[in-house]
Design brief:
This protein starts with a strand and ends with a strand. The protein is globular. It has no helices and 11 strands. Strands 2, 4, 5, 6, 9, 10 and 11 form a 7-stranded mixed β-sheet that branches. A 4-stranded antiparallel β-sheet has the order 1-3-8-7, with no helix packed on it. The chain has 114 residues and is mainly β.
């Protein structure tokens, strides 16, 4: 069974930075893209970023130029570096493993104060 554990969330002031981590167990990390999504209260889950096995990346329009997704296959961990944070980035952030039927992390809160 694939399990994803996120860490690194918290409270930060506008303009600050946070780095989220997503560690995968129970499956081969390197065979799957890793995705990041977020969901704010009352809103639909929103795509944030993907990183593929060849390190190609894609980003949602609202985070382009501010967020950077990366992966470390040796550590079975994906990362989301978030810079120049805005209050509208406040949400629960989820990581996604796409292979083996797919799995989601439990979610981690990011709050950006103005």
């Amino acid at each position: 069974q694939v399990q994803l554990v996120e860490s690194g969330g918290g409270l930060v002031q506008a303009g600050g930075s946070l780095r989220l981590s997503c560690t995968v167990s129970g499956s081969i990390f390197s065979i799957s893209p890793i995705g990041w999504f977020r969901q704010a209260p009352g809103k639909r889950r929103e795509f944030v970023a993907n990183i593929y096995m060849d390190d190609r990346t894609t980003y949602g329009d609202s985070v382009k130029g501010r967020f950077t997704v990366s992966r470390d296959n040796a550590k079975s961990t994906g990362y989301l570096q978030m810079n120049s944070l805005k209050p509208e980035d406040s949400a629960v952030y989820y990581c996604r493993y796409y292979a083996s039927g797919g799995a989601w992390g439990q979610g981690i809160q990011v709050t950006v104060s103005s």
